[in-house]
Predict the 3D structure of the following.
Amino acid sequence: MRHYKIALLDGDGIGPEIMKEAVKVLHLVAERNKVGFDLIHAPFGASAYFECGHPFPEQTQKICDESDAILKGPIGLNHEESKKIPVDMQPERGALLPLRRRYNTYANFRPVYLPKGLAHFSPLKAEIIGDGIDIMIIRELVGGLYFGHKETGVTADGVRFVKEVLEYDEIQIRRIAKVAFETAMKRKKVLHNIHKSNVLKSSVLWNTVIEEVGQDYPEVRIEHILVDAAATYLCLNPGRFDVMVMENMFGDILSDQGGGILGSLGLMPSACVGDEKAYYEPSHGSAPDIAGKNIANPYSMIGSVAMMLEMSFGMDQEAKNVWYAMQSVFADGYSTADLSKPGSGITMINTPAFGDRVVEALRKLPVPA
Ligand code: IPM
Ligand code: MN
């Protein structure tokens, strides 16, 4: 029997609630497929700071180092609560970015997916959605403004200033470009390269390297699109996109817009993949306003489990089954509060009920050979 160690970083806010549902699914997957999952919870985020004095404590680093994959819940506090933590210990800067850097998880896959049958969740009109939305956003995750040189200070004239540098070298661009072309080869063989080369020199180098790598993938058509135009097209005609690749900050913003056109950020799982290690997380934040109420949508967390099954453990069919099980809960007319507007005819269920229904649906599907 195969055994995998999975580090579970519950995180903050709704993190522990949606993690519980992901764990239910992992237990069933283990049972059905005769595979062993050693699930090891470790503190991470603001909660870890208050418990252990550090948002990414050493004991958590060790558990992550020794794990085959990491499943991470959302982190962060609301604006006011955040101020109780020193700036560099706040969980985004003190835990999440160090996690990304530690495992060099440069390739961030953010599927923006809504089958035709669930088009009513989207704020877009049915005629715009057509056959549904199916985009893979590939975001570079360990470069650019997030990780560039930073400086704050006061000039000789007493004027406060700040400087953050958008840095990339060709090695960083080439490796994410390869991931993007490989993904495009498995899909529709079209790659939308998102850039801002009319202003940013970083985009000029980015586009050059994309073109160079593209020579190794002659079957893939490259479409270069300015990031601002891409934001518009995501609303006007999302069907135009299949695989999109972009630098870190553009990817942060456009992937949230992706959640917006689906109707909820709760529908946005993600995979953060490096050459040696991968971690999986919802693309959204910790939603402190609804934490503790058991009303959050666990789809993004369970979807992250599906991505882990496929990308870290090669369990492709079981990953598809998990996706299918989640869609079937919606198809049966149930959903969490974020997607069940009054009068929509959808029956509102809470977080554990959603998880239970996913488990029930998965149990009914044939076990992969
Ligand atoms: C995301 C999040 C993070 C980011 C925050 C929490 C630092 O918004 O994963 O998109 O900006 O990368
Ligand atoms: Mn974001």
Observations:
- The pocket of 3-isopropylmalic acid (ligand 1) is lined by residues 76, 92, 96, 252, 283 (CB under 6 Å).
- The radius of gyration is 21 Å.
- The mean pLDDT is 97.
- The chain has 13 helices and 14 strands.
